[in-house]
Specification:
This protein is α+β, with helices and mostly antiparallel strands. Helix content is 36%, strand content 25%. The strands form five sheets. Strands 7, 8, 9, 10, 11 and 12 form a six-stranded antiparallel sheet that branches. The protein has a four-stranded antiparallel sheet with strand order 1-6-2-3, with helices on one face. β16, α11 and β17 form a beta-alpha-beta unit. The two termini are 31 Å apart. Bound molecules: guanosine-5'-diphosphate and manganese (II) ion (MN). Manganese (II) ion binds next to loops. The site of manganese (II) ion has 3 residues, from loops.
Length: 388
Amino acid sequence: MDLFEHQAKELFAKHGVAVPRGGVAWSPEEAEAVAAELGGTVVVKAQVQIGGRGKAGGIQLAKDAAEARAQAERIIGMDIRGHTVRRVLVEEASDIANEYYLAVLHDRASKGYLAMASAEGGMDIEEVAATKPGAIVKVGVNPLIGLRPYHVNQLLYGAGFPPETHKGAAAIVTRLYEVLTAEDAMLVEVNPLVVTTDGQVKALDGKVSLDDSSLFRHPELEEMRDTFAVDPQEQAAKDKGLNYIKLDGWVGIIGNGAGLVMSTLDVVAQAGGKAANFLDVGGGASAETMAAGLEVILSDDKVRSVFVNIFGGITRGDLVAQGILDALDRLGDKVKVPLVVRLDGTNAEEGRRLLAESPSDKVVPAATMLEAAAKAVELAGPPAKEGA
Ligand code: GDP
Ligand code: MN
């Protein structure tokens, strides 16, 4: 679960990371009020869960409350790469002398944590990572040892932070590590960390991704979930207890088992298509689950065909086939696109026979995974043009 900048900064403040003073505003009037209370020049920042807001014009300075109101008017409702701005963060503006980058995160490869820093922070860190990877210093941290002063020194000297920033930056790294571990986050990132013209070091931006599996330990964080940010199809799937992730292709995917679903995405890509989603129905490929899954997938109007890929183990192929047929019955006219079904494993033959006997002209059986992928991609046809 990703947090908004203002939520990330609330966590930062809770753990003693220096952040600018500010408040959230859901309307231009509220923005004006926050700015009036802060006094002086403020910065009005679009709150969306995507980077590059600065470049998109979603971050603007305002020299007084009236101007803050006008900027909020412009920014609220703005679309930043598919994310609608519904609220802004109004903060006291900072006089920036220098911008840096700091992050602490989980590192699967080392089964530990990783701390990263760069003296080339600011809006183009992705470009720095791509063109000058050496400018980003990475220090592995063993979770059993924890972040120690020698890690911090390695990080700050390694990245070439000027000596006068070390004290402030070290305090912030230490506290970011505390945010990561105490709040069960997967990633905590600050870009930019700034040094102001009067020598203060503070987090000007903040990104926090929480570990969903740990949210039960943090009910107060669960409350930060943004119901707007969740895709309506993902929400519907979640309500039905499905493991569904929306993707941006046009071939719908249903499979049993996360591994099988992932390889299904790969074969669809190999066949020249692009998956519209990830949907794992797990062990229970009942009519109930199949209908629920199909319904969610078909509510995405980009979907032009569906590839159902089931390997019967504990799940019996004939039951899955019956589930698919019952689901088709239940959904009736809602099913407008072909369903390519590949069944293998336990009782696959019985399953395929049931499907072959189906009166529905939507079911297309296929013998192998590759054949099914090719068929699903072919029946989907070329992708619809964007916006069409
Ligand atoms: P992002 O573009 O979504 O990563 O948003 P950031 O919060 O990182 O802001 C982008 C850029 O806006 C920063 O790198 C700064 O250059 C600029 N910016 C943000 N806040 C302030 C501020 O208080 N004062 C000044 N002068 N610039 C700011
Ligand atoms: Mn940023």
